[in-house]
């Protein structure tokens, strides 16, 4: 049945465009993107050291409809999430239990185990920087539910490391506003008003978080270190943060990979200050790498990560905060009483209920009965390991065979989550930079994922959490792909039309 709000029918989106209108909008969109830094490096391997060309990021021609009430709800929840994850990251006992290599997921997941074991060693030595910075992104899908229930907001996951597309999402929102301003979308949807395009100030918001950490470190000439992946194509998304840091806050940035840092980074044995190339002091380490095992091909990259962790620079995120972002933590939070452990004193019970209502059913696979439940409900489930970056999950009909092949000892590293069911029949025109410049918009049925950014600076002796919401992101994927992931090629950048 068709999903609708009082004034909007999702299956009627997007409005119909003539071929000439679509071609004109595509030209406006791609040239705007190329002019405004909505860019990617081209897919060539190896990436040249000094790039001389770029392509526009994959994008949608229309913004995607989203109920105003659920957009406001998602933004309202962010502050609670910022505090919640700050508290999880400072609850060592909880993290040891859930993610540790003695009792938790780290026992059976080598990557989690390596990170936790390194962190444990450093803890035993004594960590010198209590402050931690999180730049978060909480991701949601619209859930249509069954039998004409009203649409609801359901959380996909909460990211605590390398949450990307902040600055590009600000630009695609501006792009859609520009298309409306310049063409009125040819009046194919007369109900559209400029107020329906919400503003999006992710760049200033995220940089405010980085600048707050830098200020707390309190060494004027120090710089911020961006730890990046070699061959990264999403560099403009990162550079735009650098430019804002310099222009608005006079903060300089150094970009290095783990392999470069192996040679360049050192920690002063007396002050524990982190230096690059001997003389550049680092206030804050911002990770846009280090979230996936492939970033650690040898023990050397782990050693570098632990060297940074040992220093008194503020880490975004610390290993503890990275572990707090595990899918296992998300599942454990949904068990009775766990949310209260972190937020009882801070947040009224109604707000906790609002948070809980945004979760799908989740359970661990430790016990035989839980595995059986996953087999029985496979059609309505996704299984997730403790990984980031897309392409790691197992869906629906693939679940039983996957469970057959999974050694029982490894089950603890996975969670089962009920599938969110987005509104049927919503479409969009998606544009991808083609080879040889050939490109046209394709109309497909889509699913749109909303991400809300936030930051938190916490861990000091006063137990305080300084935090803010920091804008939003929409990624839209073809309906037939289980996974999103702009970087992995399954989806496009998009923005919102509030309905
Ligand atoms: P990652 O950390 O790799 O991004 P996610 O949990 O975000 O992992 O899963 C990747 C993608 O899989 C999501 O962007 C979404 O498209 C899809 N997905 C994940 N969980 C669900 C769910 N419960 N219902 C429907 N789709 C989901
Ligand atoms: Mg995700
Ligand atoms: Mg993730």
From TrEMBL:
<keyword id="KW-0436">Ligase</keyword>
<dbReference type="InterPro" id="IPR014042">
    <property type="entry name" value="Glutathione_synthase_a-hlx"/>
</dbReference>
<feature type="binding site">
    <location>
        <begin position="161"/>
        <end position="164"/>
    </location>
    <ligand>
        <name>substrate</name>
    </ligand>
</feature>
<dbReference type="InterPro" id="IPR014049">
    <property type="entry name" value="Glutathione_synthase_N_euk"/>
</dbReference>
<dbReference type="GO" id="GO:0004363">
    <property type="term" value="F:glutathione synthase activity"/>
</dbReference>
<keyword id="KW-0317">Glutathione biosynthesis</keyword>
<dbReference type="Pfam" id="PF03199">
    <property type="entry name" value="GSH_synthase"/>
</dbReference>
<feature type="binding site">
    <location>
        <begin position="288"/>
        <end position="291"/>
    </location>
    <ligand>
        <name>substrate</name>
    </ligand>
</feature>
<feature type="binding site">
    <location>
        <position position="449"/>
    </location>
    <ligand>
        <name>ATP</name>
    </ligand>
</feature>
<feature type="binding site">
    <location>
        <begin position="417"/>
        <end position="420"/>
    </location>
    <ligand>
        <name>ATP</name>
    </ligand>
</feature>
<dbReference type="GO" id="GO:0043295">
    <property type="term" value="F:glutathione binding"/>
</dbReference>
<dbReference type="InterPro" id="IPR005615">
    <property type="entry name" value="Glutathione_synthase"/>
</dbReference>
<keyword id="KW-0547">Nucleotide-binding</keyword>
<feature type="binding site">
    <location>
        <position position="477"/>
    </location>
    <ligand>
        <name>ATP</name>
    </ligand>
</feature>
<dbReference type="InterPro" id="IPR014709">
    <property type="entry name" value="Glutathione_synthase_C_euk"/>
</dbReference>
<feature type="binding site">
    <location>
        <begin position="384"/>
        <end position="393"/>
    </location>
    <ligand>
        <name>ATP</name>
    </ligand>
</feature>
<comment type="pathway">
    <text>Sulfur metabolism; glutathione biosynthesis; glutathione from L-cysteine and L-glutamate: step 2/2.</text>
</comment>
<keyword id="KW-0460">Magnesium</keyword>
<feature type="binding site">
    <location>
        <position position="159"/>
    </location>
    <ligand>
        <name>Mg(2+)</name>
    </ligand>
</feature>
<feature type="binding site">
    <location>
        <position position="157"/>
    </location>
    <ligand>
        <name>ATP</name>
    </ligand>
</feature>
<feature type="domain" description="Glutathione synthase substrate-binding">
    <location>
        <begin position="223"/>
        <end position="324"/>
    </location>
</feature>
<feature type="binding site">
    <location>
        <position position="483"/>
    </location>
    <ligand>
        <name>ATP</name>
    </ligand>
</feature>
<comment type="subunit">
    <text>Homodimer.</text>
</comment>
<dbReference type="InterPro" id="IPR004887">
    <property type="entry name" value="GSH_synth_subst-bd"/>
</dbReference>
<feature type="binding site">
    <location>
        <position position="238"/>
    </location>
    <ligand>
        <name>substrate</name>
    </ligand>
</feature>
<feature type="binding site">
    <location>
        <begin position="486"/>
        <end position="487"/>
    </location>
    <ligand>
        <name>substrate</name>
    </ligand>
</feature>
<feature type="binding site">
    <location>
        <position position="388"/>
    </location>
    <ligand>
        <name>Mg(2+)</name>
    </ligand>
</feature>
<dbReference type="GO" id="GO:0000287">
    <property type="term" value="F:magnesium ion binding"/>
</dbReference>
<feature type="binding site">
    <location>
        <position position="157"/>
    </location>
    <ligand>
        <name>Mg(2+)</name>
    </ligand>
</feature>
<keyword id="KW-0479">Metal-binding</keyword>
<dbReference type="InterPro" id="IPR016185">
    <property type="entry name" value="PreATP-grasp_dom_sf"/>
</dbReference>
<feature type="binding site">
    <location>
        <position position="475"/>
    </location>
    <ligand>
        <name>substrate</name>
    </ligand>
</feature>
<feature type="binding site">
    <location>
        <begin position="232"/>
        <end position="234"/>
    </location>
    <ligand>
        <name>substrate</name>
    </ligand>
</feature>
<dbReference type="GO" id="GO:0005829">
    <property type="term" value="C:cytosol"/>
</dbReference>
<feature type="binding site">
    <location>
        <position position="395"/>
    </location>
    <ligand>
        <name>ATP</name>
    </ligand>
</feature>
<dbReference type="GO" id="GO:0005524">
    <property type="term" value="F:ATP binding"/>
</dbReference>
<protein>
    <recommendedName>
        <fullName>Glutathione synthetase</fullName>
        <ecNumber>6.3.2.3</ecNumber>
    </recommendedName>
</protein>
<dbReference type="Pfam" id="PF03917">
    <property type="entry name" value="GSH_synth_ATP"/>
</dbReference>
<dbReference type="InterPro" id="IPR037013">
    <property type="entry name" value="GSH-S_sub-bd_sf"/>
</dbReference>
<feature type="binding site">
    <location>
        <position position="137"/>
    </location>
    <ligand>
        <name>substrate</name>
    </ligand>
</feature>
<comment type="similarity">
    <text>Belongs to the eukaryotic GSH synthase family.</text>
</comment>
<keyword id="KW-0067">ATP-binding</keyword>
